[in-house]
Amino acid sequence: MKILLVEDEQLLRHHLCVRLAESGYVVDAVADAEEALYSAQEFHHELAIIDLGLPGMSGLDLIRTLRSRGQTLPILILTARGSWQDKVEGLGAGADDYVVKPFQFEELEARLNVLLRRAAGFVQAAISSGPLRLDLNRKQAFTNEQPLGLTAYEYRLLEYLMHHQQQVIAKERLMEQLYNDDAEHDSNVIEVLIGRLRRKLNAACALQPIETVRGQGYLFTEPCR
Fold first, then answer.
1. Which of 9, 106, 162, 202 has the most beta carbons within 10 angstroms of its beta carbon?
2. Which CATH entry fits the domain spanning 2-120: 3.30.450.20, 3.40.190.10, 3.40.30.10, 3.40.50.2300?
């Protein structure tokens, strides 16, 4: 899952990038609203973390601008302002949740997981499709309750496709979910990963849920819950 992080404090931005990457997220990290607006326009993010005390355009105005431009991704506010009035103003601007500095990373991650699940239409910390189950907290896949040996990239790809079941996802969008924008990567990596996933799912439980839509991308066809 790709996250947009908007935080002007360099040390905190770096720390969050490291911790989020360790948790399996791909992070686009920027320091101000102008960069954030550009990144949100050019790339597809599943969620945004926005500090309110940004230089230039404030975090509140950034949130309002994103919403006015039709951005529907979940937004979590990260700020030192902790009064109830600040929370009401932030939520009223279009944010979905609010974390006050200083904070524990575990709480932040838990809130991110909840927002991502709700955005995808799931209320539990797991996604199931027949014998296939993803534990979203542990970032593990199981078939018939037995661990399915996936690499980190294979898991990210499968989780994204299941979060967007019955939607055709372009290869370019899948690439964005696996790599940072400045990372170099082979244009054929998605085909390789899809091939591996198909073989592992077929061998483990005779499940073939990933369909290729010629010229458009890939589709997870099995219903999830």
1. 162
2. 3.40.50.2300
